[in-house]
Each structure stands twice: as structure tokens, then as C-alpha cells.
Amino acid sequence: IILPLEWFPLNKPSAGDYFHMAYNVITPFLLLKLIERSPKTLPRSMVYVSIITFVMGASIHLVGDSVNHRLIFSGYQHHLSVRENPIIKNLKPETLIDSFELLYYYDEYLGHSMWYIPFFLILFIYFTGCFTPVEEESRMPVAALLLMGPSSLYYWYLVTEGQIFILYIFTFFAMMALVMHQKRKGLVLDSNGLFLFYSFIITLILIALWVVWLWNDKILRKKYPGVIYIPEPWAFYTLHMNNLH
């Protein structure tokens, strides 16, 4: 959206797509490295299945996101459902709308589930190995403190755009329960564990501020009618900032 359209025509991958392709290669590699560093791990076959599922989900999401984001240039509005979008209503034959709903399902539901469940599972497994009996190891360096902001912002975007608050909050509760359980054994979080735990806490604060800010938005309320109201940033963008591109 920021770069000139002439550089990346609508029928070709965008700059964001290339970054997403790199993510799909780099992130599984880093997750494997995290698992290797953790003293507690799953059976090797389960780790491989988790990584394979992660790559499949992230790849499905890449294709769906690429098409959905390119539709913005044609007037698609993410704050509306597929069938409520003006450009979709006029499609002929009407069975084409079913195809776009299928694309949305692969992107927002199947892709997200296959992507985020293994991702948070591996993070939690890594977290279980981030405990130490030595108090001196429970101190974060300055670099970690500086990186905590970007890390929390990244998790905030994953939770809000991915609509995975339930998965996130259950992971966070499991982390809290593990911290209290290990504390009874005289173990404390090391610097890596503190970084991940504090990032999740700041993420929860950012989500709360985001929800409070958009609490009275009637249009977004209609798009997200459930008990858990957490609007997607892309829906906010097409509703309130669409004139920027």
C-alpha cells in the first residue's frame, strides 16, 4: 500500500508478500533452534509435525492475505463481511461469492489455526525450560528491555489481526500457572523467560487499550458481534484510514 503500485502490479506478488515468504522460511528455522535450546521438549516427531503444520498454515495465510490486501485497491472493505462488500455484491454469477468466502475461510480460519496453534505451542514448550535456581540469571540485559516494546507490539498484532485471543490468553494463563508452580520448587524465570513473560503482559495491556479505544465503534461492533470484541487492525484501516493509500 505504501510503495507505488507500478512497482508491484496487482497480478504480481507485493513487497509484503516477499517479506511473508521470507518469514515462512526463517521463522520455522528459529522455532527449531528455540526447541533445541530448551531442556524440555516434545518427541522429535511431534516437533516436526508442529513445524510442518506451522509452515502449511502460514503459507495458506500468505496466499489469502495477498489476495485480500490487493482487493483493497478495488474497493474491498475489511470492516464488512464478504457478502456485504459492494464489489462482491455485484459479482456474476453469484456462485463467485462462494469462492471468495472460501478464500476468506482459508485465510482467516484454517490458515490462522494451522499457523498459530503450533507457534504458541512451541513458545510454551520453550518457556517451560526457562527456569533457574540462580537469582542472578533472572535479570534482563538492557538490549532485552529495549526489544520488549517491539516484541509486545508484534504479539499484539498477531492476536488482534489473527483473532486468536482465546489461544493467546490460554497460553498466558498456562505460563502464569507454570511460574507459580515452579516458584514453589524454588525456581525463577531466567532472562529469556522474563522477556517472553513480560512481553505477553504488555501485549495484554495493549489489547485492552485497543478494545477500550474502539469500544463504541458501531460499525466494528457489527463486524465483531461476539462476546470477545477485538477488532482487526486491517478492518480499522479500511474503515478509518482508507484514504491514505
Characterize this entry briefly:
With 245 residues, this protein is an all-alpha fold. The chain has nine helices and two strands; from the N terminus they run H-H-H-H-E-H-H-E-H-H-H.
Helical fraction: 55-70%
Largest sheet: 2 strands, antiparallel
Tell me how many strands there are. Answer: 2
Task: Give the structural class.
Answer: mainly alpha
H/E series: HHHHEHHEHHH
**C-alpha termini separation:** 6 Å
Rg, Å, rounded: 20 Å
Estimate the global geometry from the Cα principal axes.
Answer: globular
Keywords: Membrane, Transmembrane, Transmembrane helix
Pfam families: CLN6 (PF15156)
Protein name: Ceroid-lipofuscinosis neuronal protein 6
Transmembrane segments: 18-35, 47-64, 115-134, 164-181, 193-215
Task: Explain this structure.
The chain has 245 residues and is mainly alpha-helical. The chain has 2 domains: 1-129, no CATH class; 150-244, no CATH class. It is built from 9 helices and 2 strands; from the N terminus they run H-H-H-H-E-H-H-E-H-H-H. The protein has helices at 15-37, 44-71, 86-89, 95-128, 142-162, 165-184, 191-213, 218-223, 233-240; strands spanning 131-132, 188-189. Strands 1-2 form a two-stranded antiparallel ribbon. The protein starts with 14 loop residues before the first helix and ends in a 5-residue tail after the last helix. InterPro entries: CLN6. Pfam families: CLN6 (PF15156).
